[in-house]
Amino acid sequence: MGAQTFAQKALARAAGLPTVAVGQVVDARPDVILSHDNSAAIRRIWLEFGQARVLDPARLAITLDHAVPAPTTRHAQNHAEIRDFVREQGIRNFWEVGRGICHQVLSEEAVVLPGQTILGADSHTTHFGWLGAFGAGIGRSEVAVLWATGELWLRVPESLHIIVEGTWPLGVTAKDFALRLIGDLGADGGLYASVEFSGPAIQALSLESRMVLPNMMAEFGAKTAYIAPDDAVFAYLAPRWAARRRRLGEPVDEPLEEIMATFAAGALYPDPDASYAAVHRYDAARLEPYVACPHAVDKVVPVSALPHTPVQQAFLGTCTNGRLEDIAAAAQVVAGRRVAPGTRFLVIPASSQVLHEAVRLGYVTTLLEAGAVIGVPGCGPCMGNHMGIPAPGEVTISSANRNFRGRMGTADAEVYLASPAVVAASAVLGRIGDPREVTG
Amino acid sequence: MQPIVGRAWVYGDNVNTDVIFPGKYTYTVTERSEIARHALEDLDSTFAAGVQPGDVIVAGRNWGCGSSREQAATCLVYSGVGAVIAVSFSRIFFRNALNNGLPAIVCPPAVAAIRAGETVTVDLAGCTVHCASGVFTFPPLSEKVLEMIEAGGLVAYVKRRLGAVPGGATAGLA
Ligand code: SF4
Fold first, then answer.
1. Is it true that the peptide bond before A295 is cis, omega within 30 degrees of 0?
2. Which side of chain A, N or C, has fewer Cβ within a 10 Å radius?
3. Better pLDDT: B169 or B26
4. Residues of A with CB below 8 A from B23's CB?
5. Which is nearest to A63 in space by CA: A118, A100, A13, A115?
6. What does the pLDDT read at residue B167?
7. With contacts defined as CB-CB under 8 Å, which chain A residues touch B174?
8. pLDDT class for B1, splitting at 50, 70, 90?
């Protein structure tokens, strides 16, 4: 068979086949099966299969993150049901309330490795493309079926190739590029496709910035997304993988270099002459900060096109942009300044590790001094559960990935999406603004 | 397979899962009738009270984009919706719909022709949509999908197969 894309190679491996063709339907065996607060609902479906044990508890990964700590008795009951399930099934890849958001935690804990496949009951499972894994979101019933049988059919998708050249201007981030791409091609611009990124500007991104792109591709309609893993990825994963194994009581004797070499050997790269449904080229140097306007992620304009949009709430966090570099960018913007009167600035780190580092490096102090509120690591108000629900008529600017009507819990509130620096600048200005306006 | 007959509820492009079934209910609302009561809550406040068994949703591009929440499909099933006809579907909604026995039909010419409130007939076996302005055909769903829809969805289908071939079943959709 001819040259293969990443998606073809990954699904061939997951299905145990030498090669697969685009459009072929395969029985894939994912290496990791992700779920979160929805695990209790999945368990209720799984119980219908009449099994006493899930097929392979080692492949399950469960994080409590979507409504943590429990805001109501119902949510607390939901968590309790999940803890019972975790205990009774002996699921060791389980993370409690406050550890962080599933995609961030599984990245930090090196649960998914380059070249592996992860299917999750979460639409942003595309996230794991940052490390060269095949990640796709699926429904709850499908996860229940995976717990029971370990396999699920997947159609091998067409691939889009997105090439980014040039150097990033100061203050322009991966988030700005993701918004621009979705704005240009529409919320269904990558429908059903594997979106494969490459080019010098992509490889130049920090690992934390790389995480933004595959994560945001869920908003592009993509099935999965991919960035070629390099040494920086292997070096990030190796010590984290070893630490988790040791914590689980499994001895790890190999030196880190050897672990890195094993990860590198497992990585998958598209053939240079692989065929793509479409190729799109961008020059990073010609990008600027962008904002997605209510209530669609593809209603994208340059931040400069919104000269007077007051905001009552600025929210920095989520699996898209709640990492250390995001908090650092915000701290830099607000340092020595105050959040504008009439505006609230809510900062929710994506994980406990992010929070810990942000405290150690002084960012949390800077943010608190500016008048920000720091929340418990988790999804916060991203999907409207709690901790920052806007009032009717209010405007929020958010570093999240989704601004659908009602997404943050209030149907007649407006949500704009932007990079962390734009969110922080807007908190200080009390209206949507460019960080360069604040820091000069 | 019985044809599906009902009135058309017509919506536009990029209708997302948050307006089909708001995220704030996903961990607390579990009862079928209660799930149905919130169907399309932030899109069309008349829907939940007015929908009749067999009614059909007619939508533009990318229906069901956004979250993986399965209630975006089940709230329609529990409301009695017989089928969704669209120009295109988001991939997770498409899977969730078929997995719950809700036909998700890609038929752009039917979408262009159907007017809100008119009676629509969907013949899954014959792959046709009948409406006031004519008959439109759509590409057939695979045998396996039809089998699954007839079985009542993915869970029922896998249950049956697990019973027949212990430990050896697979199921799901593209
Ligand atoms: S932070 Fe938001 S988008 Fe990310 S997993 Fe949580 S709810 Fe989903």
1. yes
2. C
3. B26
4. 383-385, 406-407, 409
5. A100
6. 40
7. 25, 153-155
8. confident
User: What are the chain A neighbours of B154 within 8 Å (beta carbons)?
Assistant: 141-142, 145
Model ipTM value: 0.91
CA dist list (Å): A357 to A96, A123, A350, B43: 19, 28, 12, 42
CATH number at B37 reads: 3.20.19.10
pLDDT > 50? residue A28: yes
Give the CA distances from residue B46 to residues B40, B42, B52, B76, in Å, rounded to whole numbers and listed in that order: 9, 10, 12, 14
Residue ranges of domains in chain A? 294-439
| Cβ B129 vs Cβ B120: under 8 Å | yes
Residue type, B30: T
Task: With H, G, I as helix, E, B as strand and everything else as coil, classify residue A333.
Answer: helix
Name B138's Cβ contacts closer than 8 Å, sequence gap at least 6: B85, B105, B106, B107, B110, B127, B128, B129
In chain A, residues with a C-beta closer than 8 Å to the C-beta of B68 are 120-123, 125, 137-140
In chain B, residues 69-108 whose CB comes closer than 8 Å to chain A? 69-70, 73, 88, 90-92, 95-96, 99-100
- Are residues B159 and A48, on separate chains, in Cβ contact within 8 Å? yes
Provide the residue range defining the domain that includes B44. 4-138
Q: Is the CB of A379 under 6 A from ligand 1?
A: yes
Q: Which of residues 368-407 of A touch B (CB under 8 A)?
A: 383-385, 402, 404-407
The answer to whether residue B148 sits within a structural domain is: no
Tens-place pLDDT, residues B115-131:
999 999 999 999 999 99
Q: What does pTM read for this prediction?
A: 0.94
Q: Is the pLDDT of residue B170 over 50?
A: no
Residue B173: per-residue pLDDT: 37
Do the Cβ atoms of A149 and B162 come within 8 Å? yes
Long-range contacts of residues B126-135, Cβ cutoff 8 Å, at least 24 apart: B129/B85, B129/B105, B131/B8
Q: Is the CB of A319 under 6 A from ligand 1?
A: yes
**Structural domain count of chain B:** 1
Domain topology for A294-439 = Aconitase; domain 3 (3.30.499)
Chain B CB within 8 Å of residue A82 CB: no
Helices (H), A140-277: 140-149, 174-185, 200-203, 207-216, 231-247, 256-266
Would residue B117 count as lying in a domain? yes
Indicate whether B163 belongs to any domain: no
Amino acid at B40: L
Give residue B166's pLDDT: 43
In a domain, B86, yes or no: yes
Q: Which helix (H) or strand (E) holds B8?
A: strand B4-10
Q: Is A38 on the interface with B (CB under 8 A)?
A: yes
Q: How far apart are CA A164 and CA A167, in angstroms?
A: 9
**pLDDT exceeds cutoff 90 at B140:** no
Q: pLDDT-based confidence at A1, cuts 50/70/90?
A: low
